[in-house]
Design brief:
Largest sheet: none
Number of strands: 0
Number of helices: 4
Distance between the termini: 16 Å
Structural class: mainly alpha
Helix content: over 70%
Order of helices and strands: HHHH
Length: 117
Amino acid sequence: MGEGDTLLNAAIGAAVGLLLSFLPAAIVIGGALAGYLQDIPREYREGAKVGALAGVFALVPALLLFGTVGGFMMAGMGRSGGLFALFAPILLFFGAGYFVGGGALGGALGAYLADEL
């Protein structure tokens, strides 16, 4: 589809990852699709890069949702919202690692599949 078009392939992978978000490790599937579509022979590192970029693209809507829901939770909790504010950066850090790392893993797997098939 977009052979070598990194931004298009990453956007497609992010969209698939978000659409399949009800599945465990959906971002890995989206990254794998992005790496597969990149289709550069024997370049697993390039597949991992486009998969990680797909993870970043999928992270943005997730952060917007997290920020909106978290803001409402903190407003509704009153004084106990400080506990949520304490753990929010930790959740953000691990969530970003999941999205970007899972996308990179999927991208490398997708590049491997494109090379083998």
